[in-house]
Amino acid sequence: MAVKMKSIIADLLNRSTKAQIIVLADKTIVYRNTLFNDIMHVPGHCHPEEEIAQYVLDDLGDKWKMKKVSGEVCICVVEKVTYEDGYTLVTLEEETADVGECLADDAHEHPVWIADKEGKINSCNQAAKQFHNATSLFEIVPWALVDCNKKEQSIYCQNDTHRYELQLVSGKACYVVELVSCHKVFPSENDIQRMLQLSEECYAIHDMEHVYFANQAMHDLLQLPAGQLNGEQLHEYVTEADLMILKQAQEEESRTWYRAVRIKTAEGLSQDVTCAILPIRLAGKAVFVSMLKKPITPYRREEAMDVVSRLAASMAHEIRNPLTSIKGFMQFFSEKDLLPQSFFHVTKQELERIEQIVSEYAFLARTQDREEVTEICIKAFFQSLLKTERMKAVAVTHPIEWVSKAPVFITGCKKDLLFMFEHLIQNAADASEPGTPIVLETDIGEHDIRVCVVDKGVGIPEERLHVIGQPFYSTKEKGTGLGLMICYTIAEMHGGAVDVQSEIGIGTRVSVFLPRTVYHKPSSSHFTVKEPVAAIGE
């Protein structure tokens, strides 16, 4: 090739935005531009004429598997143009994804994952599957540690079992991640046991058959001496049916399971508790950490009511008086057209909400004697309930379906029962989309009746069911958490109970059990108004 022509070609190739080389028919490189040298790590002083085989490990047609001077392996997409005099112009572009594919074969000793820019793992080698068979890159690399502006970076991570170093290469359309080094780490069993021993909640570490460790709170719940549970067989304290939950939990290691289970105490008594079950690996062994929580009992709810009634006694009267004045002035402004109707409507709704809250507090702090206990016909009671203004307003957006049963009688306080069922129906409406019906079901037993309020709303998460009915806990954005507590208390005053079952996306069923004849008058601690606690120094 003439010297002048070579000079022209060299100038043209160096102006190119892509790596290019000129190859003779005998596979000799006669010229390479600066970008090719950069990609292949070729020193500037290297002789221009050399065999193409020095770089190309495998010709895959439109791609070459190439080895850089530094020893790294890469894949390049190639375009070839051959001229009449036997010269071939080859244009190359390194493809990061295929570098990963080259690395992510089972022969490569280090784990390698290839993921798209959204983090979805498209391929990995056998070593990667053994380390962590993930579906998303960000299960391995926290997103916060990835610097999208860097082409290559080293990242140091730690999970529950490993501390490791990753090499991440960012391509145009993918990430390639290689595990460079890894060390197993885990807390000692003694450390975990000491932490759990400090908790007031009931914790146990166990496998499918034996209890390895239970803290003092767990021993107290089961009425056992300290340390006796450690090493015991699990079926001695948990029913066979509930043990099946462990098999389900074992299949989904990353998920925490929440279930109501029945445990057996040392005296042979059964207790229903809420159990959170988390599968973990401890010292390389698959085990479970279970936390038991007793549902709130009538006694604990009575204690809570005692505290809340003190607060209610000092608040209800002070709030209701100014509230009445505000409502009167708002009505006056509306009648005189001094306030836009849209403003009046919003203000009226908010005032009604405040009134409802005050009513709940006033219920707790009621000073007068309770309404006389009477015999109540359930059929007539619900007919009357559905005709109230509040229920008519609910029925406008949520049809209330009730199938009348044969007349059955209970003994109780009608006003309290009206409050309870109005509140439960309103809750069902608040949790449901407009147009969704609310169903009232009644089942008659030999000694009691069950009334169910059923909705098809959003449902309550399983892990929150055990706190339903506790004071000041609400699943609604503007709820006070008092309404359901009062409902539980009313049912218990009548010798009954409330049970809540729910499933996310399906709906909620609230069952109220009421005995047909027995009624317990409220104790003095339930609704006796106590004087507000005086400030220090008064």
TrEMBL record:
SMART domains: HATPase_c (SM00387), HisKA (SM00388). Residues 314-518 form the Histidine kinase domain. The keyword Flavoprotein does not apply. Its EC number is 2.7.13.3. One of its GO terms (molecular function) is ATP binding. It comes from Shouchella lonarensis. This is histidine kinase. InterPro entries: HATPase_C_sf, HATPase_dom, His_kinase_dom, HisK_dim/P_dom, HisK_dim/P_sf, PAS-like_dom_sf, Sig_transdc_His_kin-like_C. Signal peptide: none annotated. It catalyses: ATP + protein L-histidine = ADP + protein N-phospho-L-histidine. Keywords: ATP-binding, Kinase, Nucleotide-binding, Phosphoprotein, Transferase, Two-component regulatory system. It is an enzyme of class 2 (transferase).
